[in-house]
Every structure is written in structure tokens, then in C-alpha cells.
């Protein structure tokens, strides 16, 4: 697996995690 792809995957995962946290805070 390419290192760049791995970093992009981690970044998307972190972004998704932050998005879920914001949703749980708003409700």
C-alpha cells in the first residue's frame, strides 16, 4: 500500500470522526 494513500485514508477517517462528534454535540 502506498504511504500517500494511507495518509489520505487516515485524514478522511479523522474528518469523518470530527463530523460525527459535531453531530452528537448539536443534538
Name the overall outline.
rod-shaped
Query: Roughly how many Å is the radius of gyration?
Result: 12 Å
Tell me the domain tally: 1
Say how many strands there are.
0
* Average pLDDT taken over every residue: 93
User: Roughly how much helix do the residues carry, as a percent range?
Assistant: over 70%
Ends: how far apart? 38 Å
Q: What is the chain-wise order of helices and strands?
A: H
Structural class of the secondary structure composition?
A: mainly alpha
Mind summarizing the main beta sheet? none
- Unreliable residue runs: none
| Beta-strand share of residues | under 5%
What is the number of helices? 1
Name a few traits of the molecule.
27 residues; mainly alpha; 89% helix; rod-shaped
Amino acid at each position: 500500500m502506498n504511504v500517500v494513500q494511507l495518509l489520505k485514508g487516515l485524514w478522511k477517517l479523522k474528518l469523518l470522526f470530527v463530523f460525527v462528534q459535531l453531530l452528537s454535540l448539536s443534538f
